[in-house]
Automatic annotation (TrEMBL), chain A:
Keywords attached to this entry: Cytoplasm, Golgi apparatus, Membrane, Protein transport, Transport
Superkingdom of origin organism: Eukaryota
Pfam family, one: COG4_N
Organism: Crocodylus porosus
Record-annotated COG4 transport protein middle alpha-helical bundle domain positions: 181-491
Main location: cytoplasm
UniProt protein name: Conserved oligomeric Golgi complex subunit 4
Organism ancestry: Eukaryota, Metazoa, Chordata, Craniata, Vertebrata
Family that this chain belongs to: Belongs to the COG4 family.
Cellular-component GO terms for this entry: cytosol; Golgi membrane; Golgi transport complex
Membrane topology: Peripheral membrane protein
GO biological process, one term: retrograde vesicle-mediated transport, Golgi to endoplasmic reticulum
InterPro entries to which the protein is assigned, alphabetical: COG4 (IPR048682), COG4_C (IPR048684), COG4_M (IPR013167), COG4_N (IPR048680)
From TrEMBL, chain B:
Top enzyme category: hydrolase
Cofactor: Mg(2+)
Protein name: Ras-related protein Rab-36
Reactions mediated catalytically: GTP + H2O = GDP + phosphate + H(+)
Subcellular location: Golgi apparatus membrane
Keyword list, A-Z: Golgi apparatus, GTP-binding, Hydrolase, Lipoprotein, Magnesium, Membrane, Metal-binding, Nucleotide-binding, Prenylation, Protein transport, Transport
InterPro entries associated with the record: P-loop_NTPase, Rab, Small_GTP-bd, Small_GTPase
Biological source species: Crocodylus porosus
Length: 778, 270
């Protein structure tokens, strides 16, 4: 209740104006305590109101005083109003005055500007006269720099000013002056050109540079650059011709004789690069930025001419075209007599790639120089101008004779390199040798050495297209030709040996001797050569596997080599994609070798292992499993089958273990265990078992699985799951016991046998009645 | 019509999307055409649908474009890949290369287009790129009948580097805008005869006007895509069979030859 009252009070407080308790609420009050509380509350309220009223009354005096003061201020305000009006009038007047003055000032300003212009024009005219006089004097004194500076001043004068001046009173004088100036300009141009030509003829570099700097002052930027380039080209040509003469006289025993043409090209490119380096600052200073392209364009013409000379000499001296022709002929003809010896091609191939590498380096140099010059020069230019410049550059780089000549040389190179690779690979295959104790034969290492060498050489040309082409050729070589070689070796098969025939019985050995005799020759080396054939098969399998791995290694090496090349700025925009595509083709070939390995293993399994293993397993049939206690104990002492089988297997696999790489041997044992499982199942289904016979089989199976587990790295339990389930069935006490393992009772066991197969196995037990088996609900 | 199933996005780096499966297998002329169906094979469709598109990575097919110089190989490719036509002739040096992205039935697919040089002196380098081509496009100039004669040689060179029957072949006549209707018809008759001898599909196009260019490349992409999918499916089926235990029993006979001839037969199905 008190809480409720408190709440009511608080709301009233917030209200402020009305009482804290409404009349209705007071009327509704019945309880004495509540009434007292309400009364107390009202009393407090009354006190507050009274205090407020008193405070208000106290203020009455102050307010009255203030009112009196206000009344007194009335007349003063009227005075102020009058003053203000007067002030406004004055301000308007002043404003008008100021307006008037400022328009006058403006007029004065205009007059002043005109005056300045007049002075400027007078100055210009004076300048013009001064220039004219100066030019004349300078020309007389052969001070061409001064003269050019005057002309430059004249050229930078505002043409309209000159035009206006001519219309003035002194027009005729100015006209005459102008005419003189123009004449002087023409004269100066002629003189500078002439002097430049003379200096150029005399090879006087200081004079050449002197006049080169004058051209831009006369507005002859293009002419200056072209004249100067002419001079530089001459320098380049002289040097190049000199070098070429030296080349023709080089002794063949010289250390660099084999790459002398590449060296000559290098000298040429270095010379041009040096010229660009030395003269770029002068061009930038006197001709401005963005002019380097023009200079290099002119130089490139000479470069092309000199490259043509060098390449012509190269083609002639090295018999390049004839060698290419010979290679082409050799590739078409298979007869060995007229074939060109691949080793003879080695030096020329190296030289061509070196020549191309130098060219690429040079082209990259001028590309970078021009791009950076354009970039600075075009920083304010529009996008169109930039694109235009880019187009110029592309055209210069791609269409220059240097690029095209090198492309042609590289074209021929690729065919010759392909031939070199193919022939050398063929040689390596022909000279294939195998050393005892090695897993692989010599040709695998040889072939990959050759392929690496050829691709490496293509890579050294710095041309991405050339490199990709050689990667493609290598891929083809490995995929078609070399894989074919290995494939053919595997196709010969793994021979069934005479040694094994001896084991099988004397009769077959006699048969073989008979047949050999009938053919008129008794080959005493028979055993040896079959051994060789066997070894050859195993070595080939190892070879195939190593090839597959080598290809992946080669791919990885090339990837990193290529990324190095690309990071140095060689190759176009699509270079990376091109390389990726070619390398992924190469990687695919690795898988083809893997497939071939699998095929070879299957062949080995079916032709060497199966014919051996099958008879050994068939021996199981001759060991009765329908046995009693006595025989069981006898088997315990003298194992009838499984121990011998294991020994045989071990003997046979030992041969493969020694001859095959661990990975391949692993795959082979896996194939072998599968074969054993399948064949053993077949013979078990052909046998009959007693209770103890079943136990015997279980023991035999356990020994076999235990042995096979030791020779394989993979788990083989899965492969023998069906057999061990068969053993379980053959070990049952009675038919119905199967139900303890079947269906809901199977527990963790997953049956690999179908119900029909279970019945079939149960029927192998002679002591189980067929009615019982039939009655089984599986 | 194929357009219904095709959605071209504009712009330079466009992604060409074939939304549905039953699309864009439209040929140019029934007289010289590699396939008549308007649908992908059922197993390809279901594989696409289930996103069961096989093993790793993006499917890529390699297209090699060959033909005489100045017949317009580069122009044809530039019209398709960049949608530009440059009047200035610029001889291709060595090889150029473009990758064009597609999405066919929801499966990302790339065409790798190799543009080779037509000039005799660059043939050595260009021919190194013919290998492994899923598609060979032989190009001639409709206005220059001699270039048609040369297509046989170009094709022969390209086929030499590839397994027989492993590549689709197209014969394409360019510069259709330059020849009159009658001339075009006459040349087309010859070309179609050539095409059927080459076992190629024939198309007439103009890179300048863009006529048939997109249609042609869509057709190329669709056929190459289907074959690459079929190959992939066959491969994965083959792998599956190897895992099964039953495989071991059928090892008799010349097991080395069997897989080779198998794949051969299925490759030449079209």
């Amino acid at each position: 209740m008190a809480a409720a009252a408190g709440l009511a009070l608080r709301t009233a407080g917030a209200d402020g104006s009305s009482s804290c308790l409404s009349m209705e609420r007071i009327r509704a009050l019945t309880d004495l305590r509540e009434l007292e509380a309400a009364y107390g509350c009202l009393c407090a309220e009354e006190k507050v109101v009274e205090e407020e009223l008193e405070a208000l009354l106290e203020q009455q005096g102050t307010i009255e005083n203030k009112m009196v003061a206000l009344h007194r201020m009335g007349p003063n305000l009227q005075l102020i109003e009058g003053d203000t009006r007067q002030l406004a009038g004055m301000i308007t007047f002043t404003w008008n005055l100021a307006e008037n003055v400022s328009s006058k000032v403006r007029q004065l300003d205009l007059a002043k500007n005109r005056l300045y212009q007049a002075i400027q024009r007078a100055d210009d005219i004076l300048d013009l006269k001064f220039c004219m006089d100066g030019v004349q004097t300078a020309l007389r004194n052969e001070d061409y720099e001064q003269a050019a500076a005057h002309i430059h001043r004249y050229l930078s004068l505002d043409k309209s000013v000159i035009e206006l001046s001519r219309q003035g009173k002194e027009g005729s004088i100015i006209d005459a002056n102008l005419k003189l100036l123009q004449e002087a300009e023409q004269r100066l141009k002629t003189i500078v050109t002439e002097k430049f030509d003379i200096a150029m003829k005399q090879g006087d570099l200081p004079q050449v540079e002197r006049f080169f700097k004058i051209f831009p002052l006369l507005g002859l930027h293009e002419e200056g650059l072209s004249k100067f380039s002419e001079y530089l080209c001459k320098q380049v040509a002289n040097k190049a011709e000199e070098n070429l003469l030296l080349v023709m006289g080089t002794d063949m025993s010289d250390r660099r004789a084999a790459v002398i043409f590449a060296d000559t090209l290098t000298l040429l490119f270095e010379g041009i690069a040096r010229i660009v380096e030395t003269h770029q600052p002068i061009v930038e200073t006197y001709y401005g930025l963005g002019r380097l392209y023009t200079l290099i364009k002119h130089l490139q013409v000479e470069c092309d001419r000199q490259v043509e000379n060098v390449v012509d000499k190269f083609i002639k001296q090295r018999d390049y075209h004839r060698q290419f022709q010979q290679v082409q002929n050799s590739m078409m003809r298979s007869s060995a007599t007229e074939k060109i010896e691949p080793r003879e091609l080695d030096p020329i191939l190296t030289e061509v790639t070196l020549m191309n590498a130098r060219s690429e380096l040079y082209l990259r140099f001028i590309k970078r120089r021009i791009i950076s010059d354009f970039e600075v020069g075009d920083s304010m230019a529009s996008e169109e101008v930039k694109q235009e410049h880019q187009k110029y550059l592309d055209k210069l780089l791609n269409n220059c004779l240097l690029s095209r000549t090198m492309q042609e040389l590289i074209g021929y190179y690729i065919t010759m390199e392909e031939y070199f690779m193919r022939e050398t690979v063929n040689k390596a295959v022909a000279m294939d040798t195998y050393e005892k104790g090695q897993l692989i034969s010599s040709m695998v290492d040889d072939v990959f050495y050759i392929v690496k060498k050829c691709i490496g050489r293509a890579l050294s040309s710095s041309s991405i297209d050339c490199l990709c082409a050689m990667i493609n050729h290598s891929t083809t070589e490995l995929e078609s030709n070399f894989r074919e070689v290995l494939y053919n070796k595997l196709k010969l098969g793994f021979p069934a040996t005479t040694f094994q025939d001896f084991q099988r019985g004397v009769t077959s050995a006699v048969n073989i001797m008979h047949s050999s005799l009938q053919q008129g020759k008794f080959d005493t080396k028979g055993i040896e050569s079959t051994d060789e054939a066997k070894q050859s098969f195993l070595v080939t399998l190892n070879n195939v596997e190593v090839c597959s791995e080598n290809i992946m290694t080669l791919k990885k090496t090339l990837e990193s080599d290529c990324s190095k090349l690309l990071s140095q700025g060689f190759g176009g925009e699509q270079a990376q994609a091109k390389i990726d595509s070619c390398l992924s083709d190469m990687a695919a070939v690795s898988n083809k070798f893997r497939d071939l390995l699998q095929e070879g293993l299957n062949e080995l399994n079916s032709s060497a292992i199966k014919p051996q293993v099958k008879p050994w397993i068939n021996l199981f049939l001759s060991v009765s499993h329908n046995i009693e206690e006595e025989e069981f104990n006898d088997y315990e002492a003298n194992d009838p089958w499984v121990q011998q089988f294991i020994v045989n297997l071990e003997q046979q696999m030992a041969e493969f273990k020694a001859g095959l790489s661990p990975v391949i041997y692993d795959s082979l044992t896996s194939l072998m265990t599968s074969l054993v499982a399948v064949e053993l199942e077949k013979v078990v289904l052909k046998s009959t078992f007693s209770r103890l016979g079943g136990l015997q089989f279980d023991k035999e199976l356990r020994s076999l699985v235990a042995y096979l587990t030791t020779v394989t790295t993979w788990t083989i339990r899965d492969k023998f799951a069906r057999l061990s389930q068969m053993a379980t069935i053959l070990n049952l006490e009675r038919v119905t016991e199967i139900l303890d393992y079947w269906g809901p009772n199977s527990g963790p066991l997953t049956w690999r046998l179908t119900p029909a197969e279970v019945r079939q196995v149960l029927a192998l037990r002679i002591d189980f009645r067929s009615e019982d088996i039939k009655r089984l609900r599986l | 019509s194929w357009k219904a199933g095709l959605d071209w996005t504009l712009g330079k780096t466009s992604l060409h999307i074939f939304k549905q499966l039953l699309c864009c297998l439209q040929w140019y002329t029934p007289e010289a055409c590699l396939q008549f169906k308007d649908h992908f094979q059922a197993q390809v469709r279901s594989a696409c649908h289930q996103r069961n598109t096989g093993t790793v990575g993006l499917k890529i097919s390699k297209v090699v474009v060959v033909g005489d110089l100045f017949v317009g190989k580069t122009s044809l490719i530039n019209r398709f890949c960049k949608d530009i036509f440059d009047r200035d002739y610029k001889a291709t040096i060595g090889v150029d290369f473009e990758i064009e992205r597609f999405e066919i039935a929801g499966v990302p697919y790339n065409l790798q287009i190799w543009d080779t040089a037509g000039q005799e002196k660059f043939k050595c380098i260009a021919s190194a790129y013919y290998r492994g081509a899923e598609v060979i496009v032989t190009v001639f100039d409709l206005a220059d009948i001699q270039t048609l004669d040369h297509t046989k040689q170009w094709l022969e060179d390209a086929l030499r580097e590839n397994e027989p029957g492993s590549s689709f072949i197209f014969l394409v006549g360019t510069k259709k805008d330059l020849v009159s209707g009658a001339t075009c018809e006459r040349t087309e008759r010859d070309a179609i005869r050539f095409a059927s001898e080459m076992q190629a599909e024939y198309w007439s196009v103009s890179a300048k006007t863009g006529e048939n260019v997109k249609e042609f490349f869509s057709r190329v992409a669709a056929l190459a895509f289907e074959r690459s999918m079929l190959k992939e499916l066959e491969k994965s089926n083959g792998r599956m069979a190897q895992i099964g235990a039953g495989n071991l029993i059928k090892l008799e006979g010349n097991s080395l030859d069997a897989p080779e001839s198998n794949s051969q037969a299925s490759l030449s199905c079209c």
